């Protein structure tokens, strides 16, 4: 009997141990699987953040090699020119310049013709193809009597343009990877996190493309600022017409204005200034009169005492 009891106790202990081991195994497996979904959500967010950080740290490294690459590509130079010229006829010169610009497939940004003293001056801003700048400047010099001032400058933006190209490649690569993450996202939270990062990257791409387009257009079209003045020696002698009737009319108008002023002044003096002066002077005169009377009485009494 004792042997059977010991055998039953061993079996019971074995079953209890097996159940404990199974419970521990189930608990461990549940602990491992519980954070799986949250880990997947966090993984997409972390990968998106890492992509943005890698872009931020990788893009600045490109300008180090940007100067070397800029030397091997076609130069991108923004050219500007400014001239001050004198011409026999300002309006005719402006028309000629407009025709020259049209033939060169350029355009006039701004044109102002204004009168200065007895003559007309003009200021004109032109945009013309950069490769035709020298030729057009030569044609403008030909129509001028004298070139008072001329300045031609150029700004090399090749290195900046190459750096923008490199940054654009990085941003587009980041955009492609974020799109892949967005497609692979398993829940809404992860998809929204990736989408937010994707919007920032796409905004940066548009900004870089806009800057590149501006540099391309500025380099393709040169800017010319012209100041046009008439040559005084070429201007005809102008004698103003004599109009005695107009002079007489102006004299009569001025006389009427003077008379009106005098009448207005008299009205103001009589109706405003005199009453005010009388109001102020009356008390003063009264006090002076009283003081004078008192002094007379005083001196009379004093004179009587001396007698």
- What is the architecture of one domain at the second tier of CATH? 2-Layer Sandwich
Please bin the fraction of helical residues: 55-70%
Order of strands, main sheet, comes to: 2-3-5-1-4
Coarse morphology:
elongated
CA-based gyration radius? 49 Å
Sheet of most strands: 5 strands, mixed
Number of helices: 8
**Mean of residue pLDDT values:** 79
- Beta-strand content estimate: 15-25%
H/E topology pattern: HHHEHEEHEHHEH
| CATH topology annotation of one domain | Alpha-Beta Plaits
Low-confidence stretches: 28-45, 51-66
Any overview of this molecule?
- The protein contains eight helices and five strands, in the order αααβαββαβααβα.
- The chain has 307 residues and is of the alpha+beta class.
- The protein has a domain at 77-157: Alpha-Beta Plaits (2-Layer Sandwich), CATH 3.30.70.
- A five-stranded mixed beta sheet has the order 2-3-5-1-4.
- β2 (107-116) and β3 (119-129) form a beta hairpin.
- The protein is elongated and about 130 Å long.
Record the SSE blueprint.
Blueprint: H1 2-33, H2 36-58, H3 62-70, E1 77-87, H4 90-103, E2 107-116, E3 119-129, H5 133-143, E4 146-156, H6 158-184, H7 188-220, E5 221-230, H8 244-306
Parallel strand pairs: 1-5
Antiparallel strand pairs: 1-4, 2-3, 3-5
Helix pairs in contact: 2-6, 2-7, 3-6, 4-5, 6-7
